[in-house]
């Protein structure tokens, strides 16, 4: 089984207002195609950890590997490239650009990467929308679709560059049970049938217990 993401002895301190050891020797691996959830009480350090894993926060001790490549201590530009190419994100709030069409929103991360022509990016975006069963929304403005549809659009956007891993911070936190179920089914399908790795912070027990593995956090430490 190939390892996609590896965290080795991650320690993180917040220095203000007082010195606070927020992540304590956090180590784990995520394999290709694995669907993993992170659970833990409010304040246990989940978002802080995800921020580091997503390469957004570089102020930590320890080592982080993506596709067996060390990404700790790399330049900001390189990290921004790695993030765009290999990591997809889905948040609790969708962060779509309301005045842009669904299609344009999905195309944006590929435009930023600038490795393909407009035409190629557009057909890739349509392919992702079709996969998520929302091709019919392509030309609607993002502000004109429902909450569940917006979350599916953000998943399409997160997948546009064919990432190695999809990270989610409470991706179903703002959805009703039916839409949460849809998101879970999409994630499950991506991991089982497309070999995508997923790492999702959630407070939803029902969601977490159906993933391949739960990483439980308490007071900045992994307890399982
Ligand atoms: N910038 C910061 N400066 C100082 N302390 C912080 C900062 N950000 C977070 N913390 C503290 O670090 C701890 C972990 O916060 P974090 O947001 O990672 O928790 P969480 O498990 O994601 O919580 P929640 O489930 O409520 O989102 C908390 O005690 C929080 O108050």
From TrEMBL:
<dbReference type="Pfam" id="PF00005">
    <property type="entry name" value="ABC_tran"/>
</dbReference>
<feature type="domain" description="ABC transporter">
    <location>
        <begin position="5"/>
        <end position="223"/>
    </location>
</feature>
<keyword id="KW-0067">ATP-binding</keyword>
<keyword id="KW-0813">Transport</keyword>
<keyword id="KW-1278">Translocase</keyword>
<dbReference type="InterPro" id="IPR003593">
    <property type="entry name" value="AAA+_ATPase"/>
</dbReference>
<keyword id="KW-0547">Nucleotide-binding</keyword>
<protein>
    <submittedName>
        <fullName>ABC transporter ATP-binding protein</fullName>
    </submittedName>
</protein>
<dbReference type="InterPro" id="IPR003439">
    <property type="entry name" value="ABC_transporter-like_ATP-bd"/>
</dbReference>
<dbReference type="InterPro" id="IPR017871">
    <property type="entry name" value="ABC_transporter-like_CS"/>
</dbReference>
<dbReference type="InterPro" id="IPR027417">
    <property type="entry name" value="P-loop_NTPase"/>
</dbReference>
<dbReference type="GO" id="GO:0005524">
    <property type="term" value="F:ATP binding"/>
</dbReference>
<dbReference type="InterPro" id="IPR017911">
    <property type="entry name" value="MacB-like_ATP-bd"/>
</dbReference>
<comment type="similarity">
    <text>Belongs to the ABC transporter superfamily.</text>
</comment>
